[in-house]
Amino acid sequence: MNLAFSHPWALGLAVLAVIPATRTGQTRLHHPALMLLPQDPFSQWLDRGLRALGSFAALCLATAMAGPHQAEQWRERIGTGAHIVILLDRSSSMNENFSGRYLGGKANDSKNAVASRLLGEFVARRDKDLFGLVAFSAAPIYVMPLTQDRLAVQTAIASLGRRGHGVTNIAPGLAMALDYFRGRPVTGSRLVLLVSDGAARTEAETGDMIRQLFQDEKVSLYWIYLRNPKSASLSAPPRNPNESTTPEFFLHQYFQSLGVPYRAYEAENPEAVQQAIRDLEQLENDPLHYLEKQPRRDLTGYCLGAALAALLVLTVFRALEVRKWPE
User: Fold this and answer.
1) Which residues of 9-42 are buried (b: 16+ CB within 10 A; e: fewer)?
2) What is the DSSP string of 241-257?
3) pLDDT exceeding 90 applies to what percent of the chain?
4) Contact 169/196 with Cβ under 8 angstroms?
5) Contact, 288 vs 82, CB < 8 A?
6) Regarding beta strands 140-147 and 189-196, do their DSSP bridges make them parallel or antiparallel, or are they unpaired?
7) At CA 304, angle to CA 299 and CA 305, rounded to 5?
8) How many Å apart are CA 325 and CA 319, to the nearest integer?
9) Cα within 13 Å of Cα(297), Cβ side
10) What dihedral angle (degrees, nearest 10) is formed by the CA atoms of 51, 54, 58, 61?
């Protein structure tokens, strides 16, 4: 046990535990002929026990005042699953529905709301994975670290299901998502789950940097492309390919050149999004080793409980004392 104290100076009060050993606090009764009284070993041992109980209560109270606690620590966990960083688009186009009509942030059938709801259900079902969360539009937003706290991740995803703002800029979001794996030992499947309805032009230097990060960190990529009828398909080359008018097609080609496992899902309606997520549930179920952070555990209550029990026993024996000789 990694024991620590919030107020270690209070441990100095433990010296008060010597008082019960020197002063019992019992009522003294005088007798004209004490030497005539027989020896009573049981009473002698009872007296010693009560003194020790008083010292114990003093020690517990001093320890409680010092604020004892078990410091936070890391525990190794072994399971089956994956390290998944969800990269969620928060641009203004996510406020549209799948037909391309703008709905605003509170509509239940906007792409933003549909994606948040289905991702929350996905996280709830994947009870052995570690999830991280990054949101992005013009710039990326660090939302949640890699954690097994599914409730926290679901709450964070739900909070992102509201009105989106800004333009789509995937490259900085990818860089932040990949940074989640930097410095961590490769102990299981790693993947970035990109959920977006569009793309933007990526500079060649930035693209090379991201490609290298994917390869160095051994991260797979899955893209759920929330496509509406006006958007270009990823599988068919456009008639007049241009990185400004059809950036999704070029982004798809770039992802195929990463040199890591990659798969794209074109989702044109909520049912397609749900099917894509179901497919993901069948993937990336490798053995998983990870360290789980255990929060600090307060031990003050145990000390106070032990002191209370000791004082209750002392109170009972105090009530049983004879305060004067019977006449």
Assistant:
1) ebeeebeebeebeeeeeeeeeeeeeeeeeeeeee
2) --TTT-HHHHHHHHHHT
3) 10
4) no
5) yes
6) unpaired
7) 95
8) 16
9) 9
10) 160
The HSE-up count of residue 161 (CA atoms within 13 Å, CB side) is 19
- Give the integer Cα–Cα distance in Å for 193 and 136: 13
Provide the β-strand partners of residue 201: none
d(CA 254, CA 46) in angstroms, rounded, equals 83
Which helix (DSSP H) or strand (DSSP E) does residue 208 occupy?
Answer: helix 204-217
Query: What's the pLDDT score for residue 327?
Result: 59
Six token digits for residue 190: 């790693």
Please tell me the distance from the alpha carbon of residue 177 to that of residue 199, in angstroms, as a whole number. 16
Does the pTM exceed 0.90? no
Between 99 and 18, name the one with better pLDDT: 18
Q: Are 134 and 142 in contact (CB under 8 A)?
A: yes
Cα–Cα nearest to 85, from 158, 138, 141: 141
Residue type, 262: Y
Structure tokens at 159: 């909070």
Residue of higher predicted confidence among 293 and 156: 156
Kindly report, residue by residue over 134-147, the tens digit of the pLDDT: 998 888 889 998 88
Contact at 8 Å (CB) between 224 and 273?
Answer: yes
Give yes or no for residue 105 having a pLDDT over 50.
no
* 8-state DSSP, 288: E
- Summarize pLDDT for 164-200 with one digit per residue, the tens: 676 778 888 899 999 998 887 777 788 899 988 877 7
DSSP state of 180: T
Residue (of 219, 173, 167, 211) closest to 195 by Cα position: 173
- Residue 163: closest CA among 93, 232, 229: 93
**Is there a contact between 85 and 132 (Cβ–Cβ < 8 Å)?**
yes
CB atoms within 10 A of CB 124: 12
